[in-house]
Write a sequence for this structure.
């Protein structure tokens, strides 16, 4: 798990986990305001960028992708998949840098791919898949011997492995998700006798090490895939299944990209090259929690990137096409910006020091067959020189999501909570300039129809907001665009400096809480202790470190009856008394019992779910692996732009 205390007590904060990004953090750097538009300023034709753009410093300052990794894959297309669409996902790609640096490069749609894996139900297929999972067979062999088409007869299907990423128990998944597949909820070890010899796929509670599940970090939900009645079912982790989906997407892109042509070295791309194509995935808010994010990274290579699905849709919608004709959303934004410019000109007559602000609020509505999300984003900073990234700044204000079998019914809840959140986090923001739906065309029509029904209960500003549908492939093409930004393929040059084509300020779509358990394995007492929210929904990320000072002397007081009724002065006095030498045995016992438990809440109406195993911050092991209590430590917890959680312990202990 990513939730692991870093080594070296007394050192600096723990390093980031994963080496990948969910967005592009703007870092709060002040940006110069663009000049106001004139009334007729709608001609947004891109200007050729400089012949040599060296933005190498941007990679390591704004991204977690190293410059070395970016250079290594610079000759490959970036593969983008709308992985969680709930239907056959769209695949797009962003080409490598063109030979002519003045050429504007666009993301390109490949088409749809299957969201399920089909395997031939034969003995040969079983053997090849087993060897592939053991890394003794190549993907080419797997594609030849095991992978089947949906139209083939006698196949075994592995459906939607992405929905089980990072789950430690089947019970962690919503009931309606479990109801759609074959599940065995009783706990069984990975190495066990088979209860059935029927061909098919069953999701079970299992472990990484083959032992009996024990509610610890080794527990995982896995798929048991039986391809032949005489052979034992094969165990496939969700991330292994998702990796196969990415492999298929890479080869789809390779075919579209005509990989039989020569690369820059004069050599043809090999299968290893194709499987090195960097991948990018669009992630709905309810899958942006720590465990799912880490597992998704495991399914990708070191150059992989993750982005919020709503921002992918936004980036795809705001691309100015080669013919220079804006779509309906762009037309609306340009008209609103022109109106803001005229208003600014009037204000400047009265106040010459006035500064033009071009931030415009957009609401994004998206849904799949298992959830709905609404996102509020302010877009600004028109960049005429980069028509693929016409608006350079995306500032997310709030994201509200809900899971459920009837996602559409929760749209009103999302709008209500989003409106309340905006009143809290951005009361000075102007009303929405528009609403943009994204996803499958049928889903967008449902969202649009539902909005017409519920908008009557919204405030006056929202009732008159126009709503626009986007193209069904906007999520995948926008994901490819954001991937290109992360890899430095879309830069804006100001003077002698380059900056990323799109700068994103994101917020946390999930909440993080901590429970300090002073009673150790006494579950009855520990469960009564509250979970304290340390990073709430819509918290600007990255965030932290949030620090908790832990002392063995104070733990004794917390363990005492009536501790919650003590005044601050009495608590401090009691803790001071426990620092005396005669209380060393009591401090030792309190230190050994202390556990810090980290939780996440995926949706605002969801329950707290544990993240990783409990941490024992006041315990260290001697040379003989004996647990020894410590006096004090500062526990730190942080959350990165990807949603991954890191913890650190500081102190002499």
């Amino acid at each position: 798990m990513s939730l692991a205390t870093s080594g070296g007590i007394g050192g600096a904060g723990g390093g980031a986990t994963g080496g990948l990004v969910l967005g592009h953090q703007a870092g709060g750097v002040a940006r110069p305001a663009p000049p106001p538009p004139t009334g007729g300023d709608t001609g947004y034709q891109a200007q050729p960028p400089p012949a040599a753009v060296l933005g190498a410093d941007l990679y390591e300052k704004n991204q977690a992708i190293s410059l070395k990794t970016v250079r290594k894959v610079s000759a490959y297309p970036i593969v983008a998949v709308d992985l969680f669409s709930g239907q056959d996902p769209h695949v797009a790609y962003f080409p490598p840098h063109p030979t002519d640096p003045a050429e504007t490069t666009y993301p390109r749609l490949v088409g749809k791919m299957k969201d399920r894996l089909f395997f031939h139900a034969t003995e040969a297929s079983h053997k090849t898949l087993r060897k592939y999972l053991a890394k003794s067979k190549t993907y080419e062999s797997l594609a030849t011997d095991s992978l089947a088409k949906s139209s083939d007869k006698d196949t075994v299907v592995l459906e939607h492995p992405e929905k089980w990423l990072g789950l430690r128990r089947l019970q962690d998944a919503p009931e309606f998700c479990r109801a759609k597949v074959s599940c065995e909820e009783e706990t069984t070890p990975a190495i066990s006798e088979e209860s059935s010899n029927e061909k098919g796929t069953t999701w079970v509670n299992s472990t990484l090490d083959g032992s009996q599940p024990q509610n610890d970090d080794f527990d995982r939900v896995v798929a048991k895939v039986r391809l032949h009645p005489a052979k034992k079912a094969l165990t496939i982790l969700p991330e292994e299944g998702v990796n196969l989906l990415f492999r298929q997407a890479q080869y789809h892109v390779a075919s579209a990209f005509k990989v039989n042509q020569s690369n820059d070295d004069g050599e043809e791309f090999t299968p290893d090259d194709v499987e090195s194509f960097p991948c990018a995935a669009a992630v709905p808010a309810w899958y942006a929690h720590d465990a799912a994010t880490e597992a998704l990274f495991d399914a990708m290579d070191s150059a992989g990137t993750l982005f919020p699905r709503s921002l992918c849709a936004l980036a795809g919608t705001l691309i100015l096409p080669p013919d220079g004709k804006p779509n309906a959303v762009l037309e609306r934004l340009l008209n609103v910006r022109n109106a803001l410019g005229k208003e600014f000109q009037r204000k400047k007559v009265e106040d010459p020091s006035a500064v033009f602000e071009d931030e415009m609020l957009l609401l994004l509505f998206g849904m799949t067959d298992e959830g709905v999300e609404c996102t509020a984003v302010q877009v600004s900073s028109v960049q005429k020189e980069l028509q693929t990234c016409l608006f350079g700044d995306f500032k997310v204000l709030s994201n509200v999501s809900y899971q459920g079998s009837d996602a559409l019914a929760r749209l009103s809840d999302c709008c209500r909570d989003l409106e309340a959140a905006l009143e809290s986090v951005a009361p000075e923001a102007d009303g929405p300039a528009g609403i943009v739906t994204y996803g499958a065309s049928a889903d967008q029509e449902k969202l649009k129809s539902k909005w017409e029904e519920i908008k009557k209960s919204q405030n006056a500003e929202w009732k008159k907001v126009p709503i626009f549908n986007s193209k069904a492939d906007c999520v995948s093409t926008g994901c490819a665009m954001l991937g290109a930004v992360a890899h430095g393929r879309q830069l804006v040059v100001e003077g002698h400096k380059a900056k990323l084509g799109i700068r994103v300020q994101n917020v946390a779509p999930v909440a993080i809480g901590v429970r300090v358990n002073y009673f150790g394995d006494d579950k009855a007492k520990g469960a009564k202790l509250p979970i304290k929210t340390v990073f709430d929904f819509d918290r600007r990320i990255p965030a932290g470190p949030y620090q908790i000072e832990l002392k063995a002397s104070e733990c004794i007081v917390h363990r005492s009856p009536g501790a919650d009724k003590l005044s601050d002065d009495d608590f401090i006095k009691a803790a001071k008394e426990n620092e005396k030498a005669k209380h060393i045995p009591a401090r030792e016992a309190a230190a050994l019992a202390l556990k810090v438990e980290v939780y996440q809440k995926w949706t605002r109406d969801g329950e707290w779910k544990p993240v990783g195993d409990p941490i024992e911050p006041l315990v260290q092991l001697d040379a003989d692996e004996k647990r020894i209590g410590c006096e004090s430590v500062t526990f730190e917890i942080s959350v990165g732009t990807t949603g991954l959680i890191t913890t650190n312990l500081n102190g002499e202990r």
Q: What stands out?
A: Residues 478 and 526 are 46 Å apart (CA to CA). The first helix runs from residue 56 to 62. Confidence is low (pLDDT under 50) at residues 1-63, 259-266. The longest strand covers residues 391-403.
